[in-house]
Amino acid sequence: QVQLVESGGGLVQAGGSLRLSCAASGRTFSIYAMGWFRQAPGKEREFVAVMSWGDGPTYYADSVKGRFTISRDYAKNTVYLQMNSLKPEDTAVYYCAAKTGYSSDYTRTRTYDYWGQGTQVTVSS
């Protein structure tokens, strides 16, 4: 129903920046909100950021607040994650996700309906 494709990952030194993109296709009119998650080696997938597809607030994990910014381009059906002041602990596979209905908890993976394939972000010391 909805396809999500992430891009923009890569290798960067600590203190550097990357911008991840998530292009949505298919039944994009059904999307209520889109979020970013990440999964580091040996750890569970964790919430990073979320935003409403329309107007609404954005929310960030404490670990990235003030450094990461989620945004969107409606004309391109694309959501972005601008990552500044990157730290080695930001190293992970980053996934974008879409949900098609409202739920009060946007930080849990099980509330999302569609997922991208992930893009690797590696931050060196």
Structure description:
It contains no helices and eleven strands. It is an all-beta fold. The strands form two sheets. Strands 2, 4, 5, 6, 9, 10 and 11 form a seven-stranded mixed sheet that branches. It has strands spanning 2-7, 10-13, 18-26, 33-39, 46-52, 58-60, 68-73, 78-83, 92-99, 114-115, 119-124.
Short note summarizing the structure:
With 125 residues, this protein is mostly beta strands.
Features:
single chain, 125 residues, mainly beta, 7-stranded mixed beta sheet, 4-stranded antiparallel beta sheet, 11 strands
Annotate the secondary structure layout:
Elements: E1 2-7, E2 10-13, E3 18-26, E4 33-39, E5 46-52, E6 58-60, E7 68-73, E8 78-83, E9 92-99, E10 114-115, E11 119-124
Parallel strand pairs: 2-11
Antiparallel strand pairs: 1-3, 3-8, 4-5, 4-9, 5-6, 7-8, 9-10, 9-11
Number of DSSP helical runs: 0
Q: For the CA atoms, what is the radius of gyration?
A: 14 Å
Largest beta sheet, briefly?
7 strands, mixed
DSSP strand tally = 11
Query: What structural class do the secondary elements suggest?
Result: mainly beta
Q: How confident is the prediction overall: mean pLDDT? A: 94
The outline comes out as globular
- Portion in helices: under 10%
Ranges where pLDDT stays below 50 over 5 or more residues in a row are none
- Spatial gap, N to C terminus: 40 Å
Strand content is: over 45%
